[in-house]
Write a structure and sequence with these properties.
Shape of chain A: globular
Bound molecules: copper (II) ion
Number of domains of chain B: 1
Strand order of the largest sheet of chain A: 1-10-9-4-5-6
Low-confidence stretches of chain A: none
Radius of gyration of chain A: 22 Å
Oligomer: heterodimer
Distance between the termini of chain B: 69 Å
Number of helices of chain A: 5
CATH architecture of the largest domain in chain A: 3-Layer(aba) Sandwich
Structural class of chain B: mainly beta
Structural class of chain A: alpha+beta
Strand order of the largest sheet of chain B: 1-2-9-5-4-10-11
Mean pLDDT of chain A: 89
Largest sheet of chain B: 7 strands, mixed, barrel
Order of helices and strands of chain B: HEEEEEEEEEEE
Number of helices of chain B: 1
Number of domains of chain A: 2
Number of strands of chain B: 11
């Protein structure tokens, strides 16, 4: 190797080192995978609904802890249970990895007609303890979904109906504000990676 | 020379045997990786997932699925349409020649409605018109969370 080549190697080597250094710097804070932080967190509207025990649920219910909120219905056999399972598994992985902040899982029914508190309770409790089911009047549900930009609409089937619904998972911060969201399709690894960053616990 | 002919005769015999095995008819439609999820407490419906392989040289069309363990079985498809989750019925599932179709979470699936009893196994029959193409039996799988 001649002196010219040696110099080239040194220049190239230091350039690579600098590049790695810059990349490392730029990676802080780490980038989100499928999560998205809402630039201006939104306070929840005034609404009055029920939990799975028939107790009152309102905006205050969402204060004091981080919540992962999914909108669905219990007669949904594929997307809804698959999503709740992803959330439950992500939550368990966070706990197992020693995370100090772990969100609660909330299912808001978009089919309050069939999802009574009791029906919803059986469903959310199936995915673990401490989950919150929210149902009540259709108007109450619409007040909440309308403010959060969540769409749902009945879709007739041969022997009844299903409900088309937004598939996003919303993150509500301990101040009771809608502060981040995850778009479908939902992956356990993305929640495990992104939630500590969103919750400021990385 | 004689010693060389003996192995040749043996090879011939094996070929005939293999030929006999190969002539056994292979079913045109085969189901694998069958996962029928246990219905959740209080629910009258659940989902099933599996792969269906068409080993024949012609397309196969499934127009009906039935099970003695359920009043009704339908093929559905979950889809994401601009962030909105929808589920629609598929009345005819066509599997092209020599192709595998996978029914999986968040996509095409079997929707099993109104269990007729408390069996731990489920039998599924796939029909095309009046002819049954395939019958399979599988245990219920607990939803693992
Ligand atoms: Cu379905």
């Amino acid at each position: 190797m001649g002196p010219k080549n040696l110099l080239f190697a040194i220049v190239l080597g230091s350039a690579l080192a600098a590049g790695v250094f810059v990349a490392t710097k730029l990676n802080r804070p780490p980038e989100l995978q499928t999560g998205f932080i809402v630039p201006l967190p939104n306070a929840l509207p005034d609404f009055s609904l029920l939990d799975q025990s028939g107790g009152l649920v309102n905006a205050d219910t969402f204060r004091g802890q981080w919540d992962l909120v999914f909108f669905g219905f219990t007669n949904c056999p594929d997307i809804c249970p698959t999503t709740l399972q992803v959330l439950a598994n992500a939550r368990r992985e966070l706990i197992d990895s020693g995370a100090t902040t772990v969100p609660r899982i909330v299912l808001v029914s978009v089919d309050p007609e069939r999802d009574t508190p009791e029906v919803l309770g059986q469903y959310v409790n199936y995915f673990g303890e401490g989950n919150l089911g929210v149902t009540g009047t259709l108007e109450g549900i619409k007040t909440l979904t309308g403010a959060l930009g969540i769409y749902f609409e009945k879709s007739p089937t041969d022997d009844g109906y299903g409900v088309d619904h937004s598939a996003a998972v919303l993150v509500i911060n301990p101040d009771g504000e809608f502060s981040a969201l995850f778009s479908a399709p939902h992956l356990i690894a993305s929640f495990v990676h992104d939630l500590p960053i969103i919750m400021g616990d990385d | 020379m004689l010693r060389c002919k003996l192995p040749a005769a043996t090879v011939m015999a094996v070929c005939i045997l293999i030929g006999a095995c190969g002539s056994e008819p292979q079913p045109p439609l085969v189901a694998t990786d069958i996962v029928i999820i246990e219905a959740m407490p209080g629910k009258q419906m659940t989902a099933g997932y599996l792969s269906l392989t068409n080993h024949s040289n012609a397309a196969i069309s499934i127009t009906n699925v039935s099970s003695p363990e359920f009043e009704s079985v339908e093929i559905h498809e979950s889809l994401l349409d601009d962030g909105v989750a929808k589920m629609r019925r598929i009345t005819e599932l066509s599997i092209p020649a020599n192709t595998t179709i996978t029914l999986e979470r968040g996509g095409k699936h079997l929707m099993l409605m109104r269990p007729t009893g408390t069996s731990s196994q489920v039998t599924l029959s796939f029909q095309s018109g009046d002819s049954t193409l395939l019958s399979v039996r599988a245990p219920f799988t607990p939803r693992n969370n």
